[in-house]
């Protein structure tokens, strides 16, 4: 009888253990335990970024149009190729991962690619035919050539080194071939596909174009995966209808502005884009079995900041610091005198503004958003960026 009771107890213990394991698996799938502190940091050795001006660290400035002062004044003290008074989200990502700021692929002076490269350029879109020639397909092609050429050169220089010799300065600026599959591949792109569409077609036509836009995004990810990329960190597009530029130039109609003064129809299209983007990322994670995808809800972070700007110490989010769109269109970095009034002078306190130039966020706003997205609280699955190599 005692043996029988012991066997029954053992079976019960096994069943309890099995139930616990199943419960934990279900919680993990729902993203409920991914923020646990016992996950090992990924230790990403490099970042490869693809995007538009929201993450361009000097590409478009080197290739087409120089970004002039006062851009860069708050942090760098001089123009840094960024459409901002200081740092962008991608810069705060690099800081969080303890990596150097990314050199733009298109810049030939003073670049260091040991810990990654930035293929983002201002005005870029996912599809061809927008504001910039450097659409996502071009950026992927650039990466593929970059990886092939730097790998060949690194191997050639390494083979010529004698044991004990200090590496040449040139090879120290090249990426290590073994780091490509371990790197983090980041995306912040799609806003210009919507913006260009709003300027040249109806909102409904833009909405109908989303599947084709995301099909091309999927194709780009597949190409990177074939090149060995495994860890993907993908930003949703932001609330484009809250950009002062869009509010100023959008035809005013009753009911078109929400409680925060944002263009409601444009934000609704952005939200639909994000819904389909998140669904596509879920599909990609199943199609690419060795991948680790993290979808990051940047939209919610930015909209929360705009909604609570007073509590966060910012001025009205429709006010911007540099340039002018009221009466006279003066881009940030330029000045004009009209009827004795000088347009184009930057504000005295950029850190009080959410918008830097009517289109791009200030460093202070980027810092606020970074603090709300890098921890994983707005990610699916809910990994922090340090843990974004882990699989669900």
Automatic annotation (TrEMBL):
InterPro entries: GDSL, SGNH_hydro_sf, SGNH_plant_lipase-like. One of its GO terms (molecular function) is hydrolase activity, acting on ester bonds. It comes from Turnera subulata. The keyword Glycoprotein applies. This is Uncharacterized protein. Coiled coil: none annotated. PANTHER family: GDSL-LIKE LIPASE_ACYLHYDROLASE (PTHR22835:SF555), ZINC FINGER FYVE DOMAIN CONTAINING PROTEIN (PTHR22835). Keywords: Glycoprotein, Hydrolase, Signal. Belongs to the 'GDSL' lipolytic enzyme family.
């Amino acid at each position: 009888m005692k043996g029988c009771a012991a066997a029954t107890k053992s079976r019960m213990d096994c069943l309890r253990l099995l139930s616990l394991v199943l419960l934990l698996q279900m919680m993990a799938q729902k993203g409920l335990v991914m923020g646990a502190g016992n996950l090992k940091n990924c230790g990403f050795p490099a970042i490869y970024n693809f995007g538009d001006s929201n993450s361009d660290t000097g590409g478009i400035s080197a290739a087409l149009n120089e970004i002039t002062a006062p851009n860069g004044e708050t942090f760098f003290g001089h123009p840094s190729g960024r459409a901002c008074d200081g740092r962008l989200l991608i810069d705060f990502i690099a800081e969080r991962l303890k990596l150097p700021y990314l050199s733009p692929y298109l810049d030939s002076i003073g670049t260091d690619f040991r810990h990654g490269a930035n293929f983002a350029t201002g005005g870029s879109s996912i599809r061809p035919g927008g504001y910039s020639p450097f659409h996502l397909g071009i950026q992927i092609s650039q990466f593929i050539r970059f990886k092939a050429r730097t790998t060949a050169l690194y191997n050639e220089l390494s083979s010529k080194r004698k044991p004990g010799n200090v590496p040449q300065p040139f090879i120290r600026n090249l990426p290590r071939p073994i780091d490509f599959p371990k790197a983090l591949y980041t995306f912040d792109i799609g806003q210009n596909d919507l913006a260009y569409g709003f300027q040249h077609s109806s909102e409904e036509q833009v909405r109908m174009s989303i599947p084709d836009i995301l099909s091309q995004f999927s194709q780009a990810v597949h190409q990177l995966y074939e090149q060995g990329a495994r860890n993907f960190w993908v930003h949703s597009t932001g609330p484009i209808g809250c950009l002062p530029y869009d509010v100023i130039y959008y035809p005013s109609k009753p009911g078109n502005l929400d409680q925060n003064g944002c263009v409601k129809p444009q934000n609704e299209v952005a939200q639909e884009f994000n819904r389909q983007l998140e669904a596509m990322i879920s599909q990609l994670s199943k199609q690419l079995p060795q991948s680790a995808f993290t979808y990051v809800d940047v939209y919610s972070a930015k909209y929360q900041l705009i909604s609570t700007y007073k509590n966060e110490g910012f001025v009205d989010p429709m006010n911007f610091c540099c340039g002018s769109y009221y009466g006279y269109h003066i881009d940030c970095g330029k000045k004009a005198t009209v009827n004795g009034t000088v347009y184009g002078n930057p504000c005295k306190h950029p850190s009080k503004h959410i918008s830097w130039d009517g289109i791009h966020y200030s460093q202070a706003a980027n810092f606020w958003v970074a603090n709300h997205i890098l921890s994983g609280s707005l990610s699916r699955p809910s990994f922090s960026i340090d843990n974004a190599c882990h699989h669900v």
